[in-house]
Amino acid sequence: MEYSTAYSEVLLNCMLGLTEGDGLSINSDIEQLDFATELAQTACEITRQQVNVVAIDSGVPKDVLPFTPVEHDQLLSNPTVYALLRLDNERFRREKPDVSPETIIKDFSMLQKVGNLAPPQLDKTMAPWAVAPVPSDSWAKSLFGDTANEQQLYKALAPIFKLDSVNPAQAWREQMALINHRTTLLNRYDFQRLRIEHEETKFSIRFARSSQWNNGIVLLDSGRWFIPHLPLERVTLLPDYSTMEGVLTASGSFKLLGETVEQARLVCRNGKVVETWAEQGLDVLNLACSFDEGSGRIGEVSLVDEGNEIGRFGYSNSYIGFDENATGSVLFGMGEASHIENLYRFDNLEDVRLQTGCNISDLRFRFPFGGPLLTVEGETPSGEIVTIIENGVFIL
To answer: Which architecture does CATH list for 3-88+128-164?
Structure first.
């Protein structure tokens, strides 16, 4: 099976879990339209419904291209669920914005474009959605040089997306089972505090009240699941915004407000960043941490097996799914409030903050801290210390 064909099946069957009767809209940049149209034709054979491709040029929708099944009769009934897939153009991550960070941080549309806008937290998810990158010649050249091409990039990405497996869909089902098992096991311990150490990083946090460990799989009220971003490596927790104590040293560079921050170091007390240092990007780091009351506070922690396929790929700043899963990280600003049990009993985010300790902010940025010497320990209500990760690998 060709890599592109296997990738299409992963997107439709594993990320979105498409079934007969679903509606689907695919948002695609003009550069990725060939892949989008092939994907749409495959999708409508699964759903037996019309699938629409929204062609986007420079951020503006230009056309809607409808696709109907050829091999199967189209259903006469309306779709029962409307899924959405956005094909991510990594070129926008590579291109430096033509405006300053000071301008970006005042404009929510610009914040969204550079990936630092916190999404709504109390809007209930009703249908599957996903964001996926598409290998291209231009992306390959940006990574491997002017002679590289799309197929070379597909080959490099194959282990990450399990395209080199005999049965990629089955490989992803096994990965989902592993991550769900890990999440269930962590929740059974009911940890109250977490201690994290890696080289010059050493910090502790307490958990937000009524919160649970989570992962990259979203379960709808209907019982249906989907995966918004691949790959699927991390488990996540929601800290109490006022409890982070210690030092964070970045284990790699990261993007922030359109700039690159290198060799950053943060000191946190009572949950807030009180000292910053960076070899490059210090001004933008300070700008982000002072944006609002919550932007310089911890919002979420992600833990992964270090040295996974994304980490070995080594180009994590090209797609949000790579950023989330390449290494252990702290999300400053707004985390995902979906960690909180019965979240929708709250009327507003301020109530969420007051009653659970969940941080709130209009901004978010991811700060990587993981590596091969990472140690993570959890403290149970009885005071027992349990090692979760040792030498960068889950041992729990």
So the answer is: 3-Layer(aba) Sandwich (3.40)
Sign, CA torsion 328/312/118/184: negative
Integer angstrom CA distances of residue 56 from 36, 212, 281, 285: 11, 38, 32, 32
Query: How do beta strands 393-394 and 385-390 pair?
Result: antiparallel
What are the extents of the domains in the chain? 3-88+128-164, 169-394
Using alpha carbons, list the distances in angstroms from residue 310 to 94, 114, 134, 162, 174: 18, 21, 16, 11, 18
Give the C-alpha separation, 311 to 23, whole Å: 35
216, 234 Cβ separation under 8 angstroms: yes
Q: Can you give the pLDDT of all 396 residues of the chain as single tens digits?
A: 799 999 999 999 999 999 999 999 999 999 899 999 999 999 999 999 999 999 998 878 999 999 999 999 999 999 989 999 999 877 766 677 889 999 999 999 999 888 999 999 988 888 999 999 999 898 899 888 999 999 999 999 999 999 999 999 999 999 999 999 999 999 999 999 999 999 999 999 999 999 999 999 999 989 999 999 999 999 999 999 999 999 999 999 999 999 999 999 999 999 999 999 999 999 999 999 999 999 999 999 999 999 888 888 875 656 888 888 999 999 999 999 999 998 989 999 999 999 999 999 999 999 999 999 999 999 999 999 999 999 999 998
The DSSP output letter for 182 is H
For residue 262, the tally of other CB atoms under 10 A from its CB is 14
Q: How many angstroms separate the CA atoms of 266 and 250, rounded?
A: 8
How many residues appear in the chain?
396
Cα gap 214→222, rounded to integer Å: 18
Q: How far is CA 78 from CA 20, 109, 167, 351, in A?
A: 11, 33, 32, 39
Provide φ and ψ at 9, rounded to 5°: -65, -40
Single pTM value for the model: 0.92
